Amino acid sequence: MEHTSVWAIHDPILNKVSFDYVKKNMSNYTTHVNIMTEKYGSDQIEHAGQRYEELTIGEFITQKDPRKYVKWVDEDHGLKTSLKWVKSRLIRILGRPRGKTNWSFWLGFKGSFTSLHYDEEVTNLLYVIHGLKRITLVSPKDASILPKSSEHCSDDYIETKGACWFDIDIFNAAHVPRKTILVRSGECIQIPSGYAHAAENLEDTIAVSLTSDA
Ligand SMILES: O=C(O)CCC(=O)C(=O)O
Q: What fold does the segment set 6-212 form as a domain?
């Protein structure tokens, strides 16, 4: 398994983005909330043709439901306006990755998760602003024999365009070799390129990821 680093950043400016901050500034903003199943975490739901719900951020935070998970991506209107500064701040702290850079914002309560997948992006820096995540990593070799479930998958992850989801409940598949890493508030992890990964929110967690195609 490739060496994986987690490093402490503790940026006081990003630290402002708490659940209270989001509630105060974005309560009336309506967003898609992924409804998770036991097996599939956040994004895979859409691949599996399953449900998402439209909720305001205020409703989402008030419900505190671990089966619901919010992921906003760069293009999202709400991010572009209310949280635009977060992307610039992230780039200032982490450095601008080469290539086309994107970012996502993750808002999930304790128990929410993203199941096993790999991304097409080469660089993936995930920074936990508040909360605690457990990241599960599976090497490309070990992942290559696992069942895959989306049209974006090919045998070689390099050819992948779009996220490739695995048809496996990795958290209950003890036979699959993996490495798990805790990422705490103020810490950042670089997901090794080409590694399948899954994330569990062990506490109510807010995170941001900065990705790029180079
Ligand atoms: O934090 C999460 O739920 C998922 C993170 C992830 O999979 C990613 O950044 O690619």
A: Jelly Rolls (2.60.120)
